[in-house]
């Protein structure tokens, strides 16, 4: 289902319907994670991309990229090319209601960026990043997925 299709039926959906959609997507992601238990490695085309190279440079130099709007747009485009259903799935899981900061965090997770690297890139303390990761996990998966398992599911989208 695309986000456009979801938006068309959303007014007719009950809370139970929305939860079933979320549960079905989550179950599918769990299955994919079980089928691919090895460590996640982003594709070479992402690793060779300009946004990813900037991430690595910024981490190495311990420089934040939090407010670089051009960078975030380039990263979004790169992820959309490689994973066309990524944003639709995220928007459906979040009931089409997710803040920009959380989308940025999701893109970093999709790129395989660690929480420690995320702290550098977003210029946030470890506790703040942990809080946003937990909040994001609840937004997307409710209370059905432990925060420690969230990255594996995001990698499967």
Description:
The chain is an all-alpha fold and 157 residues long. The chain has one domain (3-33, 42-155). The chain is 70% helix and 0% strand. It is built from ten helices and no strands. It has helices at residues 3-9, 15-35, 44-47, 50-61, 69-82, 86-93, 100-110, 115-122, 126-141, 147-155. The longest helix is centred in the first third of the chain and has 21 residues, at 15-35. It is globular and about 50 Å long.
Layout of helices and strands, plus pairs?
Blueprint: H1 3-9, H2 15-35, H3 44-47, H4 50-61, H5 69-82, H6 86-93, H7 100-110, H8 115-122, H9 126-141, H10 147-155
E-strand count = 0
Percentage of residues in strands: under 5%
How many angstroms separate the termini? 13 Å
Instruction: Write down the overall geometry.
Output: globular
Number of helices: 10
Low-confidence stretches: none
C-alpha Rg (nearest Å): 16 Å
> What number of structural domains do the residues give?
1
Order of helices and strands: HHHHHHHHHH
Mean pLDDT: 92
The major sheet is characterized as:
none
Question: Oligomeric status of the shown chains?
Answer: single chain
Residue share in helices? Answer: over 70%
| Overall SS class | mainly alpha
Give a short synopsis of this structure.
The chain has 157 residues and is mostly helical. Helix content is 70%, strand content 0%.
